[in-house]
């Protein structure tokens, strides 16, 4: 089976560990174990429980406590509608592996996280890409989507809020996408790893809007716990069962300690998400102020998530710019070409605040030096 190189992950693998100013990272600044345990009523008791754990495979389908915590993030999803995975990246692969076959038709938004179109392509599916255009605020043209969907369409893939743009489709648009999918009896796979930060209107889950809606989520982005590698599929029971059938071939279980720590976060979701939302809002304002002062940069201001797609006005390719910025200034961004777009840079604005400020200042210097 041939598959396209995963451009954004290859880029991060190459440069992330050596970056002095990493403003490409998309998670809210990660917590330490100590910080996470401080949200619990008795941190020392939690540590004692971990020390006494016998490290078996644990609950093969995930602990009841974990699934109960995840179900609390939705309006209509029950425990039996949830299956844990190795991060959201594992959940996306598992869903596409379980649902898509050679000859199927898949419609995916673009740009988006590359899994959503490259994996079905590798299985022999016909993938149609719905272009999300800068001029349209990176929102989908619903008439164009309707024209692309047919009775052959197996699945519509969306990413909400979107990576790289940080633009969220709100309820009215999501409901129209549901209508289009329902007309073809197609699934909707919604990668919702950035859902939870409502910078504008509250963003519902596709799994709560549509009987064939499937949500992918994780502990990485909004919970600041990427190192746990805990994600999930939330959707119709028959889809979860099909995914479990395929999961047996790829993942026996998630780690017991990762599951346990995830439960602590989910039990304290209100406090953690509020803490992280305040940080996201503050640092988005830092970015927005910077953009408005920088004449060589434009963007669509994000209304969800932790990423932004900056459009730059220099006579230089985005990959060359990103490589030189890293080499000359120590600043890491992701070139737009990793998402199939030239003259753009993706940044993450929810990491370390001082690193963001210094990274943007150095980016400004680079732009001025190369105008």
UniProtKB/TrEMBL annotation:
The keyword Transferase applies. GO terms for molecular function: pyridoxal phosphate binding; transaminase activity. Its EC number is 2.6.1.-. It is an enzyme of class 2 (transferase). Residues 52-360 form the Aminotransferase class I/classII large domain. It holds the Pfam family Aminotran_1_2. It comes from the Bacteria. Keywords: Aminotransferase, Transferase. CDD domains: AAT_like. SUPFAM superfamilies: PLP-dependent transferases. Its cofactor is pyridoxal 5'-phosphate. Belongs to the class-I pyridoxal-phosphate-dependent aminotransferase family. NCBIfam families: PRK07324.1 (NF005593). This is Aminotransferase. It comes from Halanaerobium kushneri.
